[in-house]
Structure formats: C-alpha cells, structure tokens
Automatic annotation (TrEMBL):
Signal sequence bounds: none
PANTHER family: FE(3+) DICITRATE TRANSPORT SYSTEM PERMEASE PROTEIN FECC-RELATED (PTHR30472:SF1), FERRIC ENTEROBACTIN TRANSPORT SYSTEM PERMEASE PROTEIN (PTHR30472)
One Pfam family named in its UniProt record: FecCD
Protein name per the record: FecCD family ABC transporter permease
Membrane topology field: Multi-pass membrane protein
Family: Belongs to the binding-protein-dependent transport system permease family. FecCD subfamily.
Keywords per UniProt: Cell membrane, Membrane, Transmembrane, Transmembrane helix, Transport
Length: 344
C-alpha cells in the first residue's frame, strides 16, 4: 500500500513540477530576449526597442540595430532549441548522461563535410551548407556508434565518449589538412568554425525552420517509446516497442537538428549536454517532459551566452561557441567525476 501511494504521489508531483519549471523557464527566456535586444556594442534603450519593433516608419540607427538584433535573437533561440532537443535524444538513445553532439564528434563530422564542400564543390550559401552538414553529421554518428559498440558490453557510455573523442580528433586533423593550404577556404571557414549566431538572417531562419519542425516532431513522437526503452530492451519489446526502428528514428531526429544548427551557426558545443542534464536532475528521465524542457533550456543557454559574449567582447563580440565551451567544459568534468559516466 505504501509503495502504491508513493508511486501515485510521484506521478502527481511530476506534472506540478513540470508546470512550475515551465513558468520559470518561460520567464528566464523572456529576460534573455530582452537582454539580447538591449545589450551589444551599442547601448539601446527601451524606447528604441519599441520603435524598432512596432514603428516601421522610424528609420533611426538605434531602431535598425534593434531589428537586426531581433533576427539574431530568433536565430539564437532556434539553434538553442535544436541543440537542446538533440542532446536529449542522443542521451536517451545512447543511454549516456554526457552524450552531446560535440562530445560524440557529430559537430566535427558536420564541419568536415562543410569545409569539403567549400574547398571542392565551391558551396557558398546556407542552403548548401545545411545538406553537407547533415550528411556529415549522420555518417559520423553511425561511425561513432559502430566503433563504440565493438567488443564486450556493447555501446557503453565510456566507449562512446572515447570513440567520439578519437573520431573528433581525426576529423579535426582532416579539416585542418583541407583548409590550411587554401587561403580562400580558410577565410570563409574560420568564422563559421568558431560557432556564432551573429550571421543569422531571415533567409537562414526560413531555411532552418523546416528541419527544426521535422526534428521536433520526431522527438515528440518517439518520446513514449524512448521512455519504455529506459526500462530495458526486453521490457520495451514486451510492450510492443520496435526498438531498432525507434532508436534509429530518434537518432535521425537528433542528428538532423544538430546538423542543421551546425550548418548555419557553426559547431557550438555543450548546449545539449547542459540543457538536458539540468532538466533530468530537476524532473527526472521522462522524455515527455525532458524534450520540451530541454528545448527551452537550450534556447536560454545559447541566448544568454550570446549576450555574455557581446558584453565581454564589446565593442566587438566574443563568439557564442567560445562562451559555451568556457562554461560547459568545467561542468562536463564535474558531471563525469560525480556521475562516473553511469548509464541513464
């Protein structure tokens, strides 16, 4: 009786905690959006924000700056959502609490295919980048998972991380080998390589939007099955879950989101790791809650990091990829030490 009552109380508590957390995250995202519009190399007041947002006939420099920051902020939110959900899917599929596109080498695979496209196929537009990046991310994800699955025990968390780190190192060397002898490629690639949301435009947002929608739909559709798989493959099979198909579909959704964001913003690391890990600590492993909360948290982390980069780098800016790496690397070390890389 006590066990049943405990389970019922726990099931009631999670939706309440979810609702409270949702309100907090929406509020934090709103604060980040306002900060993103206010802060930068030039000081902007609230009156300027109102002119830039609601008075199209106002053509002052401040109003135009606000309009540019609106695009940048929307692009940052979309990339943060994509990376947050991608991290949630990758952690669930691999049962690895520190899985992240950057740690598993997926970002580096996307980068290799982009620099290859620039060097040998002369690609220049965001629409071309995105296809090369997605193909590179998918091939790398399959390769890392295959290598990590070798030997006894299958794809353990530690083996996946080691396979991702080794693959990332090799692919980074290939990127340098292609880029260094070609000055035109280096000039075009070096700004993209750091990871920045400053290059976002309405065109890139419209190119990104279909990939984001498809990836989010896949994540939400697979959430119940991923929950069943957390109980173990045998239990999931007894519940009618097609384990191989769900794992493949969820991995495809994660790589699609990561590849599209990487193509347009560059290889930004640690967002998916931080967002999903924080959410799991607060509300548990239920993917029905983890996925939307990771989306919001990823948007908050990336937008906040972009604001910090603009403030610290003023009158220029510090690219957001540098800021997320500076924040994420110590946290990754802490998580690894405390969690001992246990499976989810």
């Amino acid at each position: 009786m006590k066990t049943t009552a405990y389970k019922e109380n726990k099931q009631t508590l999670i939706p309440k905690r979810f609702a409270a957390l949702l309100m907090v995250l929406v509020l934090l995202l709103g604060v980040c959006i306002i900060a993103s519009l206010l802060f930068g190399s030039r000081a902007i007041g609230l009156a300027d924000i109102m002119d830039g947002l609601f008075h199209s006939n106002v053509d002052t420099h401040e109003a135009n700056v606000v309009r540019q920051r609106v695009v940048r902020t929307m692009f940052s939110i979309m990339c943060g959502v994509a990376l947050g959900v991608s991290g949630a899917l990758m952690q669930s599929v691999t049962r690895n609490p520190i899985a992240d596109p950057s740690i598993l080498g997926v970002n580096t695979g996307a980068a290799l295919f982009v620099v290859t496209g620039i060097a040998f196929f002369h690609i220049t537009s965001a629409g071309q980048y995105i296809w090369f990046a997605i193909v590179g991310a998918m091939i790398t994800a399959v390769f890392v998972y295959s290598v990590g699955s070798m030997g006894s025990g299958g794809a353990t968390p530690l083996k996946l991380v080691l396979a991702g780190a080794a693959t990332s190192a090799v692919l980074s060397s290939l990127v340098s080998a292609i880029m260094i002898p070609r000055n035109n490629v280096m000039d075009q690639f070096r700004f993209w390589q750091v990871g920045s949301v400053g290059s976002g435009t309405w065109d890139s947002i419209m190119i990104f939007l279909p990939f984001l929608i498809v990836g989010l739909l896949i994540a939400l559709m697979t959430a119940p099955a991923l929950n069943a798989m957390l109980l173990g493959d045998e239990v999931a099979k007894s519940l009618g879950v097609r384990i191989g198909f769900i794992r493949l579909l969820a991995a495809f959704g994660g790589v699609l989101l990561c590849g599209a964001a990487t193509a347009l913003a560059g290889p930004i690391g640690f967002v998916g790791l931080l967002a999903t890990h924080v959410i799991r600590l607060i509300i548990g492993p239920d993917m029905r809650y983890v996925i939307p909360m990771s989306a919001l948290t990823g948007a908050i982390i990336l937008t906040f990091s972009d604001v910090i980069g603009r403030i610290l780098g003023s009158p220029g800016e510090l690219e957001v990829g540098v800021v997320t790496a500076f924040i994420g690397a110590p946290i990754l070390i802490f998580i690894t030490m405390k969690a001992k890389v246990r499976e989810i």
